[in-house]
Amino acid sequence: MKIEQALNLHDFREMARKRLPKIAFDFIDGGADDEICLKRNRNAFEQHTLLPRYLTEVCERDQSTTVLGKRYSSPIGISPTGLAGLFREGADGMLAAAARDANIPFMLSSASNIAMEDAARIAPDNLWFQMYCTIDDRINRDLVRRAGEAGINVLVISVDVPVSSNRERNRRNGFSRPFRMTPSIVLDALGYPGWVIRYLRSGGMPMMNNWQPYGCEGASAAEIADMYGTLTPAAMTNWDTLAWIRDAWKGPLVIKGLMHPDDVRMAADMGVQGVVISNHGGRQLDCAPSPVSLLPEIKQAVGDRLEIMLDSGVRRGSDIVIARCLGARFCFFGRPTLFAVAAGGKPGVDKALQIIRNEIDLILGQVGCPRFDALGSDYLR
User: Fold this and answer.
1) Quick one: which of 341, 80, 112, 127 has its CA closest to 207?
2) Which of the residues 32, 155, 159, 363 has the least number of beta carbons within 10 Å of its own beta carbon?
3) pLDDT digits (tens, 9 = 90+) for 192-217
4) What is the pLDDT of residue 198?
């Protein structure tokens, strides 16, 4: 299938499956343990139906919305996805450029292969920086400093990886830290010559450029990746960590990965401007609840004290409309755009974003609500 033939976000998954070795595809596609949470995330959206209001004029429809003080063209954003350069050389830059062109936010992962400073030059008005705290407080403080000096708009702290999870697909495939190209991995990769050519042409394992300044001079990409593996996850991260980040960061601060209403309330009490309710796409705690199922309780707990956003399981325009009706201002997704960039580069991401925008537009027309911002619980059954 060609990129232009894609009809929905699921199509990009199948295109990526045909273009990536099993170890690479499974790294994107897989979750923790039995991967029940992956199914739960999708099933939770299916528990809701939209109740249309007909005989309403919907000739013109507007899906733009404001979050954290900026108006975006759509209520969608690209979630942080680490090691994107392994799936296509330059993928992080392509994701940033696609977000810029669509006027939506892109959360650049601190585990990206492009440095935050370079990404900020590509998408200066659309880049958010997602950061994992490390066991080295000096590095944590320097990452916050660099993000500010790069002119990044929003800082996102992911808190849902206190310890490494049990991702059995990765373990069976040999994708572990430190990563090494074993004979079995090489043998499987030979069946995907396009990927192999790009991998070899780019020099093999891509550099994690955000972390290169903290390694030894002349360190290889594998050595930097190994260093990153010794610094994260940081099990000692706590509310005091967030307090000094809040004080050091001058722009909007978002916490990603909170799910308990009491934790969201505490974030609001601290002066955090936004939260992304997320179970890390089912990649951390397999028995975690789906974020969309938590929205009513979280909305009740904090009201409009901070921006409530969501990721995990979003695949359709209707998902985004449902989430809005339940109280979420914005939705993010990561796997679909990562599959899209792996399958087709920036044109693939452009197409994926166009598809989801078209779906939102059609849903607004179908439910009789011409403005996304006007959606509420009265459109939900």
Assistant:
1) 112
2) 159
3) 888 888 887 877 889 999 999 999 99
4) 81
Structure tokens given for 193:
């010559």
CA distance 346 to 326: 32
Report d(CA 191, CA 118) in Å as an integer: 33
- Given pLDDT bands bounded at 50, 70 and 90, which one contains residue 108? very high
Q: Give the C-alpha separation, 207 to 185, whole Å.
A: 20
- pLDDT tens digits along 243-264: 999 999 999 999 999 999 999 9
- Rounded to whole angstroms, the Cα distance separating 329 from 323 reads 8
8 A C-beta contact, residue 360 and residue 321: yes
**Mean pLDDT computed over 15-21:** 96
Across the chain, the runs of DSSP E, i.e. the strands, are: 65-67, 70-72, 76-78, 106-109, 127-131, 154-158, 253-256, 274-277, 307-310, 330-333
Given the residues 10, 48, 260, 280, select the one marked as catalytic: 280
| Residue at 118: amino acid letter | D
Cα 215 to chain centroid distance, Å, stands at 26
- Counted residue by residue, the chain has a size of 381
Residue 178 scores a pLDDT above 60: no
CATH number of the CATH domain containing 69: 3.20.20.70
Among 9, 39, 27, which Cα is nearest to 279's?
39
Residue 280 known to be catalytic: yes
The number of distinct structural domains making up the chain is 1
* Tokens 């830059």 found at: 93
Which two structure tokens, joined as six digits, stand for 271?
Answer: 């002066």
